[in-house]
Amino acid sequence: MASEFQRDKLVNMFRAFDADRNGHLDRTDFEALAERWRRLPRVRTGAGLAARVDAVMLGWWDRLAAHVDTDGDGRIDLDELLAMVDLLPTLREEVAATAETVFDAVDENGDGRISPAEHQRLVDTWHGESVDVTGVFGLLDQDGDGHLSRPEFTALWIQFWTSDDPAEPGNQLCGPVPART
Description:
Pfam families: EF-hand_7. With 181 residues, this protein is mainly α.
């Protein structure tokens, strides 16, 4: 069962994924998400990477539909999405594989590192709009070298999707978690 913190984090992602703002997720929302990712320069010019992006985004829709669409209506509401929280820790390999594809898509210059600007594009791409990430990159870049390596990014990505600890930096990877009002 999702904690209040996980709920806040996933409400934010639910809003980001709900492309048509109709209050539920369906396959078309994940197709729209994949389309946003296909606009990134490395994805746009790399057919292999574009295919991986599509496979990852639509693959997660397939997992959600199979595991949490309890009424079988082809739509997932927020409560159904929150049920996925209990399943994610058992899918560490799949979550890590997603990190690999996202890293490759965002690493615009192919230098094997995510810069602050590339991180900003990641967050904006997830949300489909510009998001203020002031101060976030400094929390993520724990070794202070000004970049996120692939292993750093993967660890942060896994934290984002599985962590219940607000103090873990990975929880900020996709942008600040809005405070409960």
